[in-house]
Each structure stands twice: as C-alpha cells, then as structure tokens.
Design goal:
This protein has five helices and no strands. By secondary structure, it is mainly alpha-helical. The model has no long low-confidence stretch (mean pLDDT 88).
C-alpha cells in the first residue's frame, strides 16, 4: 500500500519552505519598490527559484542543495546591502533576512526535509 505523499515525514516543512521561496521570489520581482528606488533592480531567486521550489516538492535530486547555496548567497548579499543602505529600506531588508534565515535553516539543517527528499 502506497503512503500518500502528504503523510510522509517532513512534507509540511518542505511545503513551507517551497511557499517561502516562491513568496520571496515573487515579492522581490513584483514589489521591488519595497527594497530599492524605482530605478533600482533587485531579484532574489527569480524564476529559477520558483522552478526549484516546485522541484523541491517533486523531490528533484539536487533541488535542496542548489536552493541552499542560492539562499546562502542571497543571505550574504542582503547583509552587505543592509550595512551599506539607507535606513529607508531597513525594515524590508530585515524581514527578508529573517525569511532567508528560516529558509536556510529548513533547507540545510532540517532532518525532516532531508528525510522527505530522500524517500522516493
């Protein structure tokens, strides 16, 4: 008898991670005025992040590792931006930093997410 995929250990944390990645991708793509001036440009994850977040739910082989690396790079970039930016966007970057920290913790350090992705 096959287990339903949503009854597997770690499915809900993986779903939460995917939702967070997609939301960060969409917010930085379509609401960029929260993070930069009108003439500026910022994208975190982009369309590739959305595709990899879906791949995370579909248990693609290296989706977790690739998203973990992207998240770490984005985390470092946001920290550098927070140090060098005006106080105008500080709250938005702080919320983004907290979200990226949660994504990193779930992708890299969560045993439940690892076990969900390793069960085929």
């Amino acid at each position: 008898m096959n287990k339903k995929f949503y009854h597997q250990k770690g499915f809900y944390l993986t779903l939460l991670t995917s939702i967070l990645i997609i939301s960060v991708s969409l917010i930085t793509q379509y609401k960029k005025a929260l993070f930069v001036h009108e003439t500026g440009n910022i994208k975190i994850f982009g369309s590739l992040g959305t595709l990899l977040a879906i791949g995370l739910l579909l248990k693609w082989k290296f989706a977790r590792e690739i998203l973990g690396v992207f998240s770490l790079i984005a985390f470092v970039a946001i920290v550098i931006i927070m140090i060098n930016t005006n106080k105008e966007f500080l709250i938005s970057y702080g919320i983004l930093l907290i979200t990226l920290t949660l994504i990193i913790l779930l992708l890299i350090f969560s045993k439940s997410v690892k076990s969900f992705l390793n069960n085929r």
